[in-house]
Amino acid sequence: MNEVSQISEFGKIFIFVLVGLILVATVLMLNRLIAPNKPNAEKLTSYECGEDPVGSAWIPFNTRFYVIALIFLLFDVEMVFIFPWTTVYANKSLAAADSRWSTFALAEMFIFASILILGLVYVWRKGDLEWIKPHTILPQVEVNIPASVYEKVNLEQQAYAVKAFTVEQPDFIPPIPASTEPAPAAIRKPMFKPTFKKPADESGKHE
User: Which Gene3D superfamilies match (predicted)?
Assistant: First the structure.
C-alpha cells in the first residue's frame, strides 16, 4: 500500500527555509562565541579595494551605475527563466504526448529572448550604455541669404584646384661680405686686488 505524504509542496518549502534559517543562526552564534573580538580603529574602517576611505560615504551617487545594474539584472533574471525552460523542453514524455509541444516551447522562448534583445537594442540606441552621453549642439544663425547662394559658391570652389605650397630657393646664393670693422677689444680683469689700510688713531699715538 502506497503511503500518502502528509506534507504538501508548500510544507516542504517551509521546512527548507526553516532549516536554512537555523543553520545561519547557528553559524552566527558560533562565530560570536568562538571568534576573538578585539576591535580597533583600523578594523572598524570600511574595506574598499584596500584603499583608506576619505570623507563621508553619504555622497551623491552617479545614476549611471543604476542603469548598468538594471540591465545586468534584466539578463540575469532571463537566465533564471531559461534554466527551468530547458528542463521542461527536454522532457520526452511531454513531446511524446503532443508533437507540437517542442515547437511551441521553442517559439515561446524565442519570443521571450527577442523582447529582451529588443530592449537592449533600444537602450543602446538611446545611448544609455555610454558613460558620458555626447550632446551635439548645432550652431544656429539667422541669416537672410538663401541656401542656393551657398550651393553656388560651393560649386564654384570645386572648379579651382588647390596648388601645393612650396618655397622656391635660388640657384646662386651670394656670399656674405666680411665686416671691415675691428673687433672690440676684450676687457681684461686686473691681475691684483688693491687693498687699503685704515690709518692708525692719532689719539693712541700720544698716549
Answer: NADH:ubiquinone/plastoquinone oxidoreductase, chain 3
**194 domain-assigned:** no
pLDDT, tens only, 39-48: 888 777 777 6
- 137: phi then psi, degrees, rounded to nearest 5: -110, 110
Return d(Cα 86, Cα 29) in angstroms, integer: 40
Q: Where are the beta strands (DSSP E) in 47-168?
A: none
Residues 6+ apart with CB under 8 A from 147: none
Domains held by the chain: number: 1
Q: Has residue 92 been placed in a domain? A: yes
Residue 195 lies in a domain: no
Higher pLDDT, 191 or 114: 114
Task: Output the domain CATH number for residue 88.
Answer: 1.20.58
Residue 146, C-alpha cell as written in the block: 538663401
Burial level of 112, CB count in 10 A (0-12/13-18/19+)?
middle
Domain of 100, in residue numbers: 9-126
Which position has the grid cell 560649386?
Answer: 155
Handedness of CA 22, 24, 27, 28 (dihedral sign): negative
Q: Please indicate, yes or no, if residue 117 is contained in any of the structural domains.
A: yes
